[in-house]
Design brief:
By secondary structure, the protein is mostly helical. It has helices at 4-12, 32-36, 43-63, 66-69, 72-78, 82-103, 111-130, 135-143, 149-157.
Length: 158
């Protein structure tokens, strides 16, 4: 059985999904006075968040395994080819989507919730994939991986 510390090492190596989880990755920073009080929700804001929620769930369903299998460092740590990685992760994806949707059953209404959903999905994928591996070596390897954020975005949006 994998020791708790090794799970923590794996989890600490997970790529951050924040930059790709909403349609706009360069939000405009409002003046400090506006930032302190976001004001009432508007229909446009609600529709934008509804779209972001649907978009995130749909893209992870379609391309979730590619977020990992298109990363050279991930492939090196797992000692697999891209094709082997896809064969190993594709069957795990639906379970992780089901778990993520169960954990976050309601509409994701802000960027923080979308990031949490995507991170939960990512943790699930990595932990399931690593379950049959030597996690001590794998965790150390993943901790040193430089995640290519541009590739992550391309993989998600394909």
């Amino acid at each position: 059985m994998i020791k708790f510390l090794h799970w923590i090492l794996l989890a600490s190596a997970i790529p951050t999904m924040g930059a790709c989880s909403t349609p706009s990755s360069n939000p405009v920073t409002p003046p400090k006075s506006a930032a302190a009080s976001p004001g009432p929700s508007t229909p446009a804001r609600e529709y934008a968040m509804e779209f972001a929620d649907e978009f995130t769930r749909a893209k992870l369903k379609k391309n979730g395994e590619y977020l990992f299998c298109d990363q050279a460092g991930y492939l090196t740590c797992f000692q697999v080819t891209r094709e082997q990685c896809l064969q190993e992760l594709t069957p795990l994806k639906n379970n992780c989507l089901d778990r993520s949707n169960k954990k976050f059953p309601d509409r994701l209404t802000n960027e923080k919730e979308i990031d949490r959903y995507a991170t939960y999905f990512s943790v699930c994928m990595m932990l399931q994939h690593s379950a049959a591996k030597d996690t001590r070596e794998l965790g150390a390897c993943l901790k040193n991986v430089e995640w290519d954020k541009a590739q992550r975005d391309r993989s998600l949006l394909q």
